[in-house]
């Protein structure tokens, strides 16, 4: 896990994070405005179910967009954690460190802030501080989940090692 001078740059982890950032940037364009996603959703639902209530589709569009925020920025937070874990490494067999988590969280919050700020310049988009809070909350939740899962995994791994060592 250590990235010393002899280890190559962790391309795979950073490529995944950068591709996800690119996806977020594309979703921040007018193509993915509320009106455009609503129109596409309406057409899809109408083609499957026939005539539909427009207000129901509007509500579904709102919910799907919020789920998209949580999912998108949660995944970004996880991908950044992975990238920093491999980049910064550790001299110990550690699966979670606070520094990796903090950097991943603040980078995700910064991307969310820049994304919403960018949207304030687009006529068909609106930048909202509430979305920054939602995106940052998703990033924080993912980091908390990683802490719990990776610490639990490490504790279980340590118990297995101790059991094997005692039995030998």
Summed up, what is this model?
The chain is built from 5 helices and no strands. By secondary structure, it is mostly helical. It has one domain.
Query: How many separate domains?
Result: 1
The tally of beta strands, per DSSP, is 0
Q: Give the % helix.
A: over 70%
Mean pLDDT: 86
Walk me through the topology.
Blueprint: H1 11-27, H2 34-49, H3 54-88, H4 98-119, H5 129-167
Helix pairs in contact: 1-3, 2-3, 3-4, 3-5, 4-5
Question: How would you describe this protein?
Answer:
This protein is mainly alpha-helical. It has one domain (11-160). Helices cover 77% and strands 0% of the residues. It has helices at residues 11-27, 34-49, 54-88, 98-119, 129-167. The longest helix has 39 residues, at 129-167. The radius of gyration is 21 Å and the shape is elongated. It starts with 10 loop residues before the first helix and ends with a helix. Mean pLDDT is 86; it is low at 162-168.
State the main characteristics.
77% helix; 168 residues; disordered C terminus; 5 helices; mainly alpha; single chain
């Amino acid at each position: 896990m250590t990235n010393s001078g002899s280890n190559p740059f962790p391309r795979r982890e950073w490529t995944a994070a950068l591709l996800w950032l690119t996806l977020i940037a594309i979703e921040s364009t007018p193509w993915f405005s509320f009106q455009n996603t609503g129109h596409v959703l309406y057409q899809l639902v109408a083609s499957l179910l026939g005539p539909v209530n427009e207000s129901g589709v509007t509500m579904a569009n709102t919910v799907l967009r919020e789920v998209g925020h949580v999912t998108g920025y949660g995944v970004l937070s996880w991908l950044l954690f992975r990238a920093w874990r491999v980049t910064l490494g550790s001299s110990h067999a550690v699966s979670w460190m606070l520094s990796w988590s903090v950097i991943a969280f603040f980078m995700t919050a910064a991307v969310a802030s820049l994304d919403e700020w960018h949207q304030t310049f687009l006529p068909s988009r609106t930048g909202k501080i509430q979305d920054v809070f939602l995106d940052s909350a998703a990033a924080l939740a993912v980091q908390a989940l990683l802490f719990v899962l990776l610490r639990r995994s490490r504790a279980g791994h340590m118990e297995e090692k101790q059991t094997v060592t005692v039995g030998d």
